[in-house]
Target: NAD-dependent epimerase/dehydratase
Amino acid sequence: MRVFVTGGTGLIGSAVVAELLGSGHTVLALARSDASALAAEAAGAEPLRGALADLDILRTGAAQADGVIHLAFANDFSSPDALAQAVAEESAAIAALGEELVGSDRPFVTVSGTPYVPGRVSAETDPPMTDGPVGGRGRAVTAALGLASHGVRSTAVRLPRTVHNQGTGGFAGLLTDIARRTGVSGYPGDGAQRWPAVHALDTAVLFRLALERAPAGSSWHAVADEGDSVRDIAAVIGRRLDMPVKSVSSQTYGPLGPIFATDQPSSSTHTRQELGWEPKHPSLLEDLENIQP
Model:
């Protein structure tokens, strides 16, 4: 299968591209810079120059492919306005890609987050989050899943709060970056809130499985660890960086503060049973041992 991938040179995307190529697929990768194009070529993919905001380029990529995996996101959490702009850009991109695939029965794999369900572990049958600072991402993916009734085999892989590899990535990676900047490995509140996590290499396998066999309109959870307490995550970061570990204001995390403070464990039982996905790589707490002082 020839697969058009956006975000193919990031932490998750590079793992997905390698997984696809290793399984006999070919990859057309969106590349927003010369460096990204060279990285895509080095990985064995064909680059397509353009940014996520270039909707005509996205349509061209989708038109040339047998399936699409969308991973790109600006990841600008510096301010509410910057985050809103990133969400709006992605929403327009998802809509453009979906429109190009209408009536083709080709697979369209999108990304959303595991949902927050008060008082229990969330499951694949729970609706996506459509409120809050990143609620627009949930609304865009919901619209993409709705294309199942318009001849698109659309499906969503829901990512946990941290997708990691070699001690970097995700919300845990943001905690590490903030610790380096402030000299304190902090956590909001009492730190008992739980975050699910998964290794990037395990995530890549799930994206491939979703591309190859997931039915239209389905959602899947890329969750290996149902929920590590943020206090435990911060403790490993503090030990690795030789910094004090303590509670800090949720304002430390900017527009993501409310999400950082929320208990949001998640399950992947249905995903494992239906797609035969089984995580094999190190857990988050194990992987954080790779943080370099």
Remarks:
- The chain has a mean pLDDT of 95.
